[in-house]
Amino acid sequence: MKIDNLIHQKILKEISQMKSVSTPENIAFGQRYIGTDKPYHGFTTKQITDLVKKVFKENQLNSNDLIQLLNSLYQHGASYTEIVLGPMILSLCPQTLKNFDPQNLDLWLNYTHGWAEDDVLCQSIFTAENVLAKWPEWEKILKNFNRDSNVNKRRASLVLLTKSVRQSDDSRLSKLAFKNIENLKWETDILITKAVSWLLRSLTTFHKDEVLKYLEDNKESLPKIAYREALSKALTGRKYNNLKKLTSQNHLAKHH
To answer: Does residue 115 lie in a domain region?
Structure first.
């Protein structure tokens, strides 16, 4: 497939010159672990980060250039490396993030596969300030993702809120977070069950009592892993603890 974007072409040349230090066995394991359906080079985090910095330094990217680059990386990227580079470059551009149109995500998430590709785009880039500044657009896209037939977009409807609800106690964020969890709590796909747990745990930062009540009211309908991990986080601040002990602690907390 011919790639027209010149910066994408440069990135492919750089990738072709990089050497993976991973063994074939580790590459195969890594590909299974992150759930990608694309060729996986097994590059280290430092190798990828260095490439991101080099691309950013050597190219004067305005917002339009950056969006066009990500469009190319997602639509035409053949490897896991190309898919994760885009969001990492975007994270270095605060002005683009400030004016970001979340509708771009609707295109890009058509090309992600597995938790790692979803999360590098959805988890750490967009702050509560970014989301709340353009709340009508974000609210609309998050509601649409929550009902989408694409499991990667349904996961995004949860993961995109995890950072924001840890940074802000704004009720618009928490209300939508609980609603999106409620709509997806019946699903059994691990991409969803783990994201439900993640968002509930993130909500404990400012809404611990609401989380505890939600857990109590929905104990039988929530994924077991989400109930267990969120209860532990709410009561102890840690993700993993003895469930029987935690249940007893929660019972005592409600009666004192």
So the answer is: no
